[in-house]
Design brief:
The chain is mainly alpha-helical. The chain has one domain: MFS general substrate transporter like domains (Growth Hormone, Chain: A). Helix 10 runs antiparallel to helix 14 and helix 10 runs antiparallel to helix 17. The protein starts with 27 loop residues before the first helix and ends in a 14-residue tail after the last helix.
């Protein structure tokens, strides 16, 4: 099955039903593995989403004014370039995951983004802030790919594996709640915290809090077992050296190309579209007249609904993944309604009352994050053991992080060509971008290969 001249995926009916083992209770060690994975996914989400809520106050503290071309340019760079750097470093991380093992890469990725998260809080310039954000996201990107491969190979039974991947990824939404909670705490109690560079900027504390979950992960993960599948194949010498070019071999080319394109669309919506909501809210009718602290609290409150949508989307996917066997059908269940809901939400948002913005944000977030969950379950099923981390990295890091998140730059660039106030310009540009992205995804999904079996390819 490891030979590259044999196709890994064909259009056959996936295995139906769950085996008795898939309904068996998890062992204490398996529960610990799941708990550690949940915390890791939550921390990844925290680091990836925290800047969307602190972008405006952080750039303002460096002398940039919201709505100006320079401000929009820096927002675009700080949303995209760290993701792009994460994509490139994550590709290397995927290779190392296949080469030196899942656990070792997990440990060092945690050290990288824990240290870098602290560095962002103490940045003294925009270029320094950009550098540390790049390092933080790079660590998170490597951690995600290694963790998915580790989990997929630790739970051998297909039904149990699908549920574990689905529900542990649902804890990614916890990271969004932690962002909202930490920012609210920083706004409310920041004056009593130790000063950073002589100031009590709430955005700095929110970035600093992001390193806290890394501490227990650094302590526990070195003592957890390596992936049994990877370890066994390494011991018997059946683990060929991974090569990035191998994922474009005839048997894998289609799944690599199509999944990379579709993953790019998913991340484009997540970073380029949904993360613009905190910048639209201050210009809406119910918020624009409030004093600065009240505006920030309102932004944090709206972000709660983004997080609620994230939880709902993750849980909805975790339930559907064991009931809908055809992967193209499963993905379309989220793309089709999102293609209508998301552009409409951003067109209406600058003129809508706050309750409608919260509802629209919840629904758009639900549909978006379910698609992100899809790739964590789908990609491990499409690549053999010695290419699993590499294949995931090409889709998630090159397609998602490097290409997809460039939508953030596209949206901030397009903003200047839109009519109306700053909030209207941003919202209309985001609506246009989301419509184009979802149209591309809806067309491309018809070429997505189906897994040949519920079991992982060896």
């Amino acid at each position: 099955m490891c030979g590259m001249n044999l196709p890994v995926v064909v259009r056959t009916q996936p295995d139906a039903g769950l085996s008795p083992q898939s309904r068996a209770r998890l062992t204490p060690l398996q529960w610990l593995i799941c708990a550690v994975a949940c915390l890791g996914f939550a921390f990844d989400t925290y680091e990836i989403t925290v800047f969307s809520i602190v972008a405006r106050p952080s750039l303002s503290s460096f002398g940039l004014h919201p709505g100006t071309a320079e401000f929009n340019r820096w927002v675009g760079m700080l949303l995209w370039l760290p993701q792009a750097a994460g994509g490139l470093v994550g590709l290397l991380g995927g290779y190392l995951t296949d080469r030196v093992g899942r656990r070792r890469v997990l440990v060092w990725s945690i050290v990288l983004y824990g240290v870098s998260a602290a560095g962002t809080a103490f940045a003294t310039s925009l270029s320094e802030l950009l550098f540390w954000r790049c390092m933080t996201i790079a660590g998170a990107c490597v951690e995600f790919v290694a963790a998915i491969a580790w989990l997929a190979e630790t739970f051998a039974d297909p039904g149990q594996r699908e549920r574990v991947l689905g529900y542990t990824q649902a804890f990614s939404a916890l990271g969004g709640f932690l962002v909202t909670g930490s920012y609210f705490v920083a706004i409310t109690f920041g004056a009593s915290f130790p000063a950073i560079h002589g100031m009590h900027d709430a955005w700095r504390y929110a970035l600093l809090f992001g390193m806290l979950p890394a501490i227990p992960l650094m302590i526990v993960r070195p003592f957890l077992p390596e992936s049994p599948v990877w370890r066994q194949r390494r011991l018997i010498g059946a683990l060929p050296r991974p090569q990035v070019s191998a994922v474009f071999a005839p048997g894998l080319r289609r799944v690599t190309v199509v999944s990379t394109l579709l993953t790019a669309c998913s991340f484009a919506i997540a970073v380029g579209v949904i993360q613009q909501v905190p910048r639209v809210v201050p210009g809406t009718p119910d918020v624009r007249g409030l004093e600065p602290h009240a505006v920030e609290r309102t932004v944090a409150a709206v972000h709660v609904f983004t997080n609620l949508g994230n939880v709902t989307g993750r849980l909805l996917f975790a339930w559907l993944v064991v009931h809908v066997t055809r992967q193209r059908r499963l993905l379309r269940l989220f793309i089709l309604p999102a293609m209508i809901v998301t552009p409409l939400f951003f067109v209406v948002a600058p003129h809508a009352p706050l309750w409608l913005i919260k509802a629209g944000d919840f629904l758009a977030g639900t549909l978006m994050v379910a698609q992100l969950s899809f790739w964590g379950n789908y990609l491990p099923r499409m690549y053999p053991t010695h290419l699993r981390g590499t294949g995931e990295s090409v889709g998630t890091n090159i397609g998602g992080r490097l290409i997809g998140t460039s939508a953030a730059m596209a949206v901030t660039t397009l903003t200047g060509f839109m009519p109306g106030s700053a909030a209207m310009q941003l919202a209309y540009a985001t609506a246009c971008a989301s419509l184009v992205i979802y149209l591309v995804a809806f067309v491309a999904v018809r070429w997505l290969p189906e897994p040949s079996t519920a079991a992982l390819p060896e």
